[in-house]
Write a structure and sequence with these properties.
alpha+beta, elongated
């Protein structure tokens, strides 16, 4: 899909994030010389075409006090994993949950759930609750903690 001049300006105006104001589309539109409605309409179209995958808030967990963030990985029976993943995704402390293929024999895990807590003990408690939910359908699990904090960024356009 080719981007026109407006699309490029819109992406450039939003690639660092939407302004933290009550009406962010209006603020972006003011910088582009269009209405907030036009900004919202075009972003919706870009979402629909797949050029933009999502628009959402990305909280800075560390600034919010959640300094123990661990990706919990689970080896769950294939026949049960989809239904259980829907339940896991609803648990407090789980920011995202998804299924991935195993890579046997090295990597047996097929269910991933990101857990956030103020301490590793808190994350371990959440993992224990998750293990209880999964019950006998889970053969093993682990929690992977990051060794570095990576900066998340959205779509970036190459400078012309």
């Amino acid at each position: 899909m080719a981007l026109d001049a407006f699309d490029r300006a819109l992406i450039a105006a939003t690639q660092a994030g939407l302004p933290l104001v009550p009406r962010p589309y209006d603020a972006v539109g003011a910088t582009l010389g269009v209405s907030g409605g036009r900004v919202g309409q075009r972003l919706a179209e870009l979402l629909h075409t797949g050029l933009v995958r999502r628009i959402g808030a990305v909280p800075h967990h560390y600034k919010l006090g959640f300094t123990a963030n661990g990706m919990s990985v689970w080896d769950v029976a294939d026949a049960e994993v989809a239904a259980l993943a829907r339940q896991v995704a609803q648990l407090p402390g789980v920011s995202h949950c998804y299924l991935r293929p195993r890579s046997l024999p090295v990597w047996p895990y097929n269910l991933f759930a990101m857990l956030h807590g103020r301490s590793r003990d808190e994350v371990a408690e959440q993992a224990a609750q998750l293990a209880q939910l999964l019950g006998p359908h889970c053969r093993q699990h682990d929690i992977l903690y990051p060794s570095a904090v990576l900066k998340k960024t959205g779509l970036r356009l190459k400078e012309d």
